[in-house]
């Protein structure tokens, strides 16, 4: 090679998609049209729980411009689901599977109209006559667990999607050793992903007679699998391509329009397009899980934890989606990042007739850590201990045994992260230990300021024995020297800058300049499976695959093979599921660690909470692109700010009543805290490529409990249900006799 190895890792190279997105040249699924395309609209359920007795589409089909109405009878294998195939593609009579004639929530689809224009398709929807037989419904997860509750799925006793437990140590001895016991009940609610690009897609028959689906998602090959399963086609007959993706955050892990678009294009042999409105997007895609946690924690007088008991109940909604995995992660994190000798946890994922709950940034950990860190802050207050000091006394560290009775994977840095957070914010370390400096108080007597801290950990990669893998291909082109590197990879860039980071890693692995790399991405026809852009895994897993592919390609190049191509499938160390009786497991092969300190101002007259300052310490192992990394941290914090303070889905017996961004409020640029300080730590992960760890979810995890601690620090009042809206805060303050009459 005629050039020296160029440094690419840890450089803020410009994003490869930046210019197109800034200028508007980049095309998202909703921007793409094909000559002769048809338009699709969906007839959604009009009931929360009912049997579909009949669908009469004759009037709609007679409307000029309507090409076809598809119902359950048209779906070859009428089922889908990311983990459990428990949802019909289209609900109605005459399907091939039992119970596919039942709608279980308002987001179920009962028919699709394909027409020459979008306007005709929309008008035809109102002409489809659906006859329902109402069935008993249940909208509360605890009520759904009762023997008297309606059973929503065949052979699912108590409406339990999943049940887990942890039994570790001797609870009687643990409580006997406790000098202080604190109890709490914590509630979280749904959260809307609110990504910029609503669901859209285009399906057509490509030049190799495959049904090709252009759509936004998070795992091309999983979308492909669910499409070919439902259509009863061989895998090679289905192709999935991701153009630009306007955000995801877990909200595109599950199907929306993929299967129905493919079905229509395959049956009609014509291109078919769909574009949801913002209202449809909020009404008909899954949300973050509402989770209730009942917790009882004990500690000795020196602050050492002795026992933890928790009950975790998650509302899965009408279908599983990823609920069994999300609640598994909640069980793992509900004891916090601490060494606890005696643990008793029961965790339930429960079907209801609410909108399905599914993946969302943090994947159960934000809800569980809201409870765990709330309990730690209560213990600190009860023991008159500094909240950072009590955390450091109990923190997991290298070699620690986790709640599941196995050691954490090597590379535990939770103490270093806690210390960095304290040191970079408002804690002082003296001979007597860590001490929090009090904030200066405003002159206005109605305003009070407080500070709080929280931390957490989360898996990098798939958990609990779920098959984990990532493929990459690298092709080296040139004659005497490598002039060009083509990276083939299926990983989804959902706006996080993944394709830029992957290109950086490819350049470094081959030893060439960054601008020599071209990426061919997110097309099942050109790449093997990379797994999902989720679980904070994509950079970690892709880096290992890219390193392997580069090594093979370079070996071939050295042997004068031109062009030289290397392909590599990386598989990390295996994980195991929970033991059904004890919870013992080796749940993950790597983790990321985070801690946050915040300062808030509480208006005790209105209950409004203003987030003034956030210090976020995050161990990332190794920085690939500093600018993108800081963007991930700041973006996660602002998204978590919305979750903690303002975002509230109004669900009335399964129907969402605020499906607009004018009534479902998310943070704007004016709400961003005046300061977000990113403290980036680089303790290499022992098995991570270049030592890196995934980190995209971690800055989301501790913000809500840190804010709750700061509210307590300011007012002496605990807020145990999220979001902390002004109405909720002021009502709680008044009940405690705080504020103006």
From the structure above, extract its key features.
single chain; 741 residues; alpha+beta; Aldehyde Oxidoreductase, domain 4; Aldehyde Oxidoreductase, domain 3; 3 domains; seven-stranded mixed sheet; five-stranded mixed sheet; 17 helices; 25% strand; globular
Question: What report would you give on this structure?
Answer:
- By secondary structure, the chain is an alpha+beta fold.
- The chain folds into three domains: 18-27 and 469-570, Aldehyde oxidase/xanthine dehydrogenase, molybdopterin binding domain (Aldehyde Oxidoreductase, domain 4, 2-Layer Sandwich), CATH 3.30.365; 32-135 and 199-275, Aldehyde oxidase/xanthine dehydrogenase, a/b hammerhead (Aldehyde Oxidoreductase, domain 3, Alpha-Beta Complex); 291-463 and 580-735, Aldehyde oxidase/xanthine dehydrogenase, molybdopterin binding domain (Aldehyde Oxidoreductase, domain 4).
- Helix content is 25%, strand content 25%.
- The chain has 17 helices and 27 strands.
- The chain has a seven-stranded mixed beta sheet with strand order 3-5-1-12-9-10-11, sandwiched between helices. It has a five-stranded mixed beta sheet with strand order 7-15-14-13-8. Strands 18-23-24-27 form a four-stranded mixed beta sheet, sandwiched between helices.
- Helix 9 packs parallel to helix 10 (365-382).
- The termini are far apart.
- The mean pLDDT is 97.
């Amino acid at each position: 090679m005629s050039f020296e190895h160029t440094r690419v890792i840890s450089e803020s190279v410009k994003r490869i998609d930046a210019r197109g997105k800034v200028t508007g040249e980049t095309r998202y699924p909703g921007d793409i049209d094909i000559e002769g395309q048809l338009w699709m609209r969906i007839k959604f359920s009009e009931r929360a729980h009912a049997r579909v007795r009949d669908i009469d589409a004759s009037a709609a089909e007679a409307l000029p411009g309507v090409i076809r109405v598809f119902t359950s009878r048209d779906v070859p294998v009428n089922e889908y689901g990311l983990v459990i195939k428990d949802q019909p593609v289209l609900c109605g009579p005459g399907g091939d599977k039992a119970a596919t004639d039942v709608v279980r929530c308002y987001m179920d689809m009962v028919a699709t109209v394909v027409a020459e224009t979008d306007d005709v398709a929309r008008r035809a929807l109102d002409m489809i006559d659906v006859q329902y037989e109402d069935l008993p419904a249940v909208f509360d997860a605890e009520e759904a667990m009762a023997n008297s509750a309606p059973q929503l799925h065949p052979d699912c006793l108590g409406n339990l999607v999943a049940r887990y437990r942890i039994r570790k140590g001797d609870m009687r001895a643990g409580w006997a050793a406790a000098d202080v016991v604190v109890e709490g009940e914590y509630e979280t609610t749904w959260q809307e992903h609110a990504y910029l690009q609503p669901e859209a897609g285009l399906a057509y028959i490509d030049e190799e007679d495959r049904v090709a689906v252009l759509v936004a998602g998070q795992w091309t090959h999983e979308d492909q699998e669910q499409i070919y399963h439902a259509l009863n086609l061989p895998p090679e007959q289905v192709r999935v391509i991701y153009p630009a993706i306007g955000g995801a955050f877990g909200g595109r892990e599950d199907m929306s329009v993929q299967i129905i678009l493919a079905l229509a294009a395959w049956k009609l042999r014509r291109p078919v397009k769909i574009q949801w409105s913002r209202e449809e997007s909020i009404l008909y895609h899954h949300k973050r899980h509402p989770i209730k946690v009942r917790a009882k924690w004990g500690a000795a007088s020196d602050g050492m934890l002795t026992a933890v008991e928790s009950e975790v109940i998650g509302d899965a909604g009408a279908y599983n989606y990823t609920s069994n995995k999300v609640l598994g992660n909640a069980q793992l994190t509900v004891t916090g990042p601490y060494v606890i000798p005696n643990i008793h946890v029961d965790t339930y994922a429960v079907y209801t007739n609410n909108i399905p709950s599914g993946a969302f940034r943090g994947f159960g950990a934000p809800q569980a850590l809201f409870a765990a860190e709330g309990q730690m802050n209560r213990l600190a207050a009860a023991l008159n201990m500094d909240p950072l000091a009590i955390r450091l006394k109990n923190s997991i560290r290298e070699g620690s045994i986790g709640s599941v009775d196995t050691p954490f994977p090597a590379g535990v840095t939770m103490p270093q992260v806690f210390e960095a957070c304290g040191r970079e914010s408002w804690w002082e370390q003296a001979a007597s230990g860590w001490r929090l400096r009090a904030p200066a108080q405003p002159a206005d007597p109605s305003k009070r300021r407080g500070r709080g801290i929280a931390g957490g950990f989360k898996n990098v990669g798939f958990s609990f024995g779920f098959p984990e893998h990532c493929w990459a291909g690298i092709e080296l082109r040139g004659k005497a020297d490598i002039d060009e590197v083509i990276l083939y990879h299926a990983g989804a860039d959902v706006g996080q800058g993944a394709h830029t980071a992957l290109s950086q890693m490819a350049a470094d692995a081959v030893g060439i300049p960054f601008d020599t790399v071209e990426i061919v991405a997110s097309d099942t026809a050109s790449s093997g499976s990379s797994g999902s852009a989720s679980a904070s895994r994509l950079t970690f897993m892709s880096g290992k695959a890219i390193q392997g592919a580069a090594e093979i390609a370079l070996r071939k190049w050295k042997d004068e093979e031109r062009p030289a191509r290397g392909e590599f499938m990386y598989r990390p160390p295996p994980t195991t599921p929970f033991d059904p009786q004890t919870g013992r497991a080796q749940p993950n092969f790597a983790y990321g660690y985070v801690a946050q300190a915040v300062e808030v101002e509480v208006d005790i007259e209105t209950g409004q909470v203003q987030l003034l300052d956030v210090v976020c310490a995050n161990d990332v192992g190794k920085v690939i692109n500093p600018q993108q990394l800081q963007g991930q941290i700041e973006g996660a914090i602002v998204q978590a700010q919305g979750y903690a303070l303002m975002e509230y889905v109004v669900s009335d017996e399964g129907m969402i009543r605020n499906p607009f961004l004018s009534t479902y409020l998310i943070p704007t640029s004016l709400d961003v805290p005046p300061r977000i300080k990113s403290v980036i730590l680089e303790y290499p992960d022992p098995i991570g490529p270049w030592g890196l760890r995934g980190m995209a979810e971690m800055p989301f995890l501790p913000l809500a409990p840190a804010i709750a601690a700061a509210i307590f620090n300011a007012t002496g009042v605990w807020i145990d249900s999220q979001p902390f809206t002004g109405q909720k805060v002021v009502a709680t303050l008044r009940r405690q006799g705080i504020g103006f009459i």
